[in-house]
Amino acid sequence: MSRPTGNIRLKSARVAAGYNSQQALADALTEAAKGLGIRGLAIGVRQVRRWESANPPWPQPDCQRVLTHMLGQDMESLGFTPPWEATTESPDRVRRNLITTTVAAVGLAAVPTQTALAVQPASVAADFTAVTRSHRRLYWSVAPATLYPSAAAHASLGCALLPETAGQTRKLIAAALSETWLLVGRIEFFDLREPDRASDTLLRALQAAGEADDPLLGAAVLAHTAFIPGWEGRRDDALERMVAARTYARRGQASAEFEAWLDAVEAECETRCGNSRTALNLIRHGEDTIAAGSHHPNPEWMDWFGPARLAAFKGNTQLKAGHVPQARATLLAVLDELSPGDAEQATVVLGDLAAAEAAAGNPGESCQYAIRALDQLAMTWYATGMDRVREVRKALAPWQHEPCVRELDDRLYSWSTTVSALAR
């Protein structure tokens, strides 16, 4: 069996970084040079072929900078022999030794660098992303509190893998890590009602999106962070984050539904801050945006929004604006359109319908919708849905001695419901 020849170290690092051909690496190096501020550097496939030969020439300084940046290893680790004598240490190696000695002398823990760790193969990106994709689907059927530890542990794995990858592999890992942190943050905010923890988690998601250089993921994370001040009535903070989210969305060529979702998020924040008219205008703009369409596709990970979800936002805003008949009609239409997999959203819509009937002076119908929401919550817990039911019960105070309201209280304060609410 013949042994492979040439610069195997560089070839292995290239493949591990996700560049399966010499041409792919050459193109990536040329593009990366622009990002590093190196003008006029064009690397062709012939140059890469020479570097992967049995006796590779020592690259020029600008090429060295781009190679080490893209592949995450120093020149010697990439199979290049420096032109100076073997007995003389290179300036970079002397500097590294000096830093290591100084850190050890003052008793600080050295931060592991990319070159000090094993380089993962390119296949690690597909493997890690596959688990992220599975968590995305499981969210719609598994109880969020059950899924939460697994998703958080997967994010920890991604943080450990990221320093061990480079190039395209590193970007793919970072994108999947950002999505995982986003899922964890959504569970913390919407399902577990822990906004402070969600704020920290979403910051990690934004950092990972930056590592992946994925502006759409960045826009999605920023829009989710707007919910936190928005629900607390801090309008200026929420709108500032929405401006940032829309800026990133423009860079990422957002789809029509993605842009409409941004309108819906901002409308939710405006509604929570008492600006229902502004919110309705935003939702109307979102409806027009979806109707106009776009040639940009939805990102694969955006599975939480569609026309029915936009209508649900609309129904809630109409309700808060006092447009009860319109809200009822909108919410009933949404309830008919929801799929079996939209259990969480169903609890919110049922809660809003209960609130609409209470506002219309129909306690019996209101209690029926609230009990249906509780039935769904018994199967799929959703803190936001429970909040809606509690708000309805407050609105039913004028009828609290009616049999229908007492029946709702029996359900709302049953052993299982009370324990579940306090435990979460």
Describe the structure.
The protein is an all-alpha fold and 424 residues long. Among the domains are: 1-77; 340-424, no CATH class. Helices cover 70% and strands 0% of the residues. The longest helix is centred in the middle third of the chain and has 25 residues, at 167-191.
Structure summarized in a few sentences:
The protein is mainly α. It is built from 20 helices and no strands.
Q: Uncertain regions: pLDDT < 50 for 5+ in a row?
A: 85-117
> Could you state the order of secondary-structure elements as H and E?
HHHHHHHHHHHHHHHHHHHH
**General form:** elongated
Rg result: 27 Å
Name the average pLDDT: 87
How many strand segments? Answer: 0
Rounded to the nearest angstrom, the distance between the terminal CA atoms is 62 Å
User: How does the major sheet shape up?
Assistant: none
User: How much of the sequence is in beta strands?
Assistant: under 5%
Q: How much helical structure, as a percent, in the residues?
A: 55-70%
Structural class: mainly alpha
Helix run count = 20
